[in-house]
Design brief:
Length: 255
């Protein structure tokens, strides 16, 4: 039934009032919609972290869902807002690389959101999440076709460092997320069995299967739930121990 779409919200707004205001606008436009808080704890303005988490989370939403991502350091500028139909879901995000995980071949339709009739009457220069993204999400939940939002486009901004890069003898990746436990999540896939993983001045040569298998107080690597390698400290914080922020390089030695 139209209007009963599942809408996932992904932002860097934390526990601020901004999240509640977005939900209120969405439900004012589509009262039957169901809104899920996917994440709001992304590091402020960290597009890389937001793109990674979104890339790992969207498959858990059923077909027909609407994923609204607002990690938007360029809010109020001339950056575009995109509505993308892919994987039988709809993604709404600023055109800043948040949707880099969607390959060109998976795009069914991509539109620039520019039809102001779907926006709130007054658009703040600093809160497009409430004034543009939320009412547009509500309109989509009610069945508005993407074609009514704006012109078609096919050239979105893409992040160059969301996926690892193959170098001689291995893969060069990055720390892309630090979770609330202080685990350092990398974008290095666990599909590849490494000879070693190098992060900062540390070289990790063997992995543990569970947190309980790790020695107390010493950083180790572990296959995380995102199917990427993580650096963890049992009952502690790898982020505090190693002082490696998001964006720090990591290397997966394969030979």
């Amino acid at each position: 039934m139209r209007g009963m779409s599942l809408i996932g919200l992904a932002t860097d707004f934390g526990d601020s009032v901004y999240v509640g205001e977005m939900k209120a606008v969405i439900l004012a436009r589509a009262p039957a919609a169901r809104v899920v808080d996917l994440f709001h704890s992304v590091s402020p303005q960290c597009v890389l972290e937001g793109a990674f988490l979104l890339s790992k989370s969207w498959p858990f939403f059923p077909e027909g869902s609407i994923l609204v991502a607002v990690v938007d350091p360029g809010v109020g500028s001339d950056r575009r807002i995109l509505a993308v139909r892919a994987h039988r879901r709809t993604f709404l995000a600023p055109d800043n690389g948040l949707l880099s995980f969607i390959s060109k071949s998976d795009v069914e339709d991509m539109r620039v959101v520019e039809n102001r009739s779907f926006f709130l009457p007054h658009v703040s220069a600093t809160f497009h999440g409430r004034d543009i993204f939320a009412p547009v999400a509500g309109a989509l939940a009610k069945g508005t076709p993407l074609a009514k939002l704006g012109r078609r486009t096919s050239a979105p901004v893409r992040l160059s460092d969301l996926s690892p890069v193959r170098r001689a003898g291995g893969l060069e990746g990055k720390i892309v997320h630090v979770d609330r436990f202080g685990n350092l999540v990398t974008n290095l896939s666990t599909r590849h069995a490494p000879r070693a993983i190098v992060a900062g001045r540390r070289r990790f040569r063997s992995a543990v299967r569970t947190y309980s298998d790790a020695p107390e107080g010493r950083p180790v690597i572990l296959k995380g739930s995102f199917d990427t390698w993580e650096i963890v400290v049992k009952n502690g914080s790898a982020a505090h121990f190693l002082k490696l922020p998001i964006g720090s390089p990591v290397r997966q030695e394969l030979s």
